[in-house]
Design goal:
395 residues; mainly beta; 4-stranded antiparallel sheet; 30 strands; globular
């Protein structure tokens, strides 16, 4: 099973592209919160951040939606019986803000989703019949906030989640682990210390190991962070930073021993952004040669990756529209993906692949009046020869 989990575009792009950054909360598997009926009245914007599949007939996508202009609610959608369905979700979020940013599925009876609610990490678990809020580990006192961006479920007794802790004076990385009974905070390398504002955005796990990626700015220039679990401890690997304008990693994925990480260079100048894909081979992290399909000055950015046994997928945006890259035989090339006429924009944030099936999720914007636009969730499916849009049940 491929595990590809990352953080949503909001985390890094809030300052880059005008996407809204949000912050959100928690409870526990033992003392779980009853699920509330799924709200089906989407009166505001909605978006999907992550997708995971166990088979061609079973997949999950998570994100958020707004009721009105201020009530933000986590969104969970399920692919089953040949359609996407909105799934009842625990009653969290509301005006305080709630969002799910990562999802990982072990089987049709077990899946995990993570995010943020009321300034605290949010973890939810699917037990085969309902989603329940699970108690995240304590990350500090009342003044400590935080969020989880990605999750990777390896087994019923080993699940990893990564994100950030917001402390007075800066941000530090956050890693949590589920041992089958409870979530605990696990020590993480912190390149540059508190002032570097290091945060983790994606995590992946397989029999070959576990990896996490993110970004750190020890000298006020953002650089890539790649961590590997070695002999029971997380350690930082040396990773490339090809752009002098800053570099950012958004996602990591593993299939067997094939490990991919993706993001973009030019973080401090989105006009100069270029696609970034790395392979992790032992302790080495070589940079792949990837296409930049946008015209000079366009922002070519990757937010999600999915490793496969024969290559992989990477998704994001270019020239304010979706972009999808495909790796085969060690070479990356662009694959056509749906787009919408200007002034509409579109963006893909998550991708997953299992067998010959692949899904990509994100958002698209459209004018709803001469002075107002709305964001709609976007789901694409790989047919084996091309990517096509699949109806999302909320639109």
């Amino acid at each position: 099973m491929i595990q590809q989990h990352r953080r949503p575009a909001h985390w890094a792009i809030g300052a880059i592209s005008g996407l809204l950054a949000v912050s959100l909360a928690t409870p526990a598997l033992g003392a779980s919160t009853p699920t509330a009926p799924a709200r089906r009245v989407f009166t505001g914007s909605d978006s999907l951040s992550s997708v995971a599949a166990t088979s061609a007939s079973d997949a999950w996508a998570v994100g958020y939606y707004f009721v009105g202009t201020s009530e933000q609610v986590p969104l969970i959608e399920h692919w089953s019986r040949g359609k996407w369905h909105i799934t009842p979700n625990p009653a969290v979020g509301g005006k305080s803000g709630g969002v799910l940013t990562g999802v990982s599925a072990l089987s049709i009876k077990s899946a995990w989703a993570v995010g943020e609610e009321q300034g605290k990490p949010l973890i939810e678990h699917w037990n085969g019949s309902a989603w329940r809020v699970a108690a995240a580990a304590t990350i500090g006192g009342k003044k400590v906030s935080g969020a989880l961006a990605g999750v990777a479920a390896f087994s019923p007794t080993s699940v990893w989640a990564v994100g950030r802790r917001d402390l007075t004076g800066g941000v530090i990385p956050l890693i949590e682990h589920w041992n089958g009974k409870k979530w605990s905070v696990v020590p993480s390398p912190d390149p540059g210390g508190l002032a570097a504002n290091t945060f983790l955005t994606g995590v992946a796990a397989s029999k070959a190991g576990a990896w996490a990626v993110g970004t750190s700015a020890p000298k006020n220039i953002y650089g890539t962070v790649v961590l590997a679990l070695q002999r029971g401890k997380w350690r930082q690997l040396k990773s490339p930073n090809p752009s002098g304008l800053g570099n950012f990693l958004n996602a990591v994925s593993v299939s067997g021993r094939h490990v991919l990480a993706g993001g973009f260079g030019g973080y401090d100048n989105p006009v100069a952004a270029r696609t970034l894909v790395m392979h992790v081979r032992g302790t080495a992290v070589p940079l792949d040669k990837t296409p930049n399909p946008g015209v000079p000055g366009a922002a070519d950015e990757l937010y999600g990756v999915a490793a496969t046994s024969t290559g992989g997928w990477a998704v994001g945006r270019t020239i304010a529209q979706t972009v999808i890259l495909h790796e085969t035989a060690g070479h990356w090339k662009q694959v056509g993906s749906p787009s919408w006429p200007s002034p509409a924009t579109s963006l893909l944030e998550g991708v997953t692949a299992v067998g010959t099936t692949a899904w990509a999720v994100g958002q698209r914007t459209a004018l709803v009046s001469p002075t107002m636009s709305a964001t709609y969730s976007l789901i694409l499916r790989w047919t084996g020869s091309k990517w096509v849009q699949t109806p999302s049940p909320n639109r």
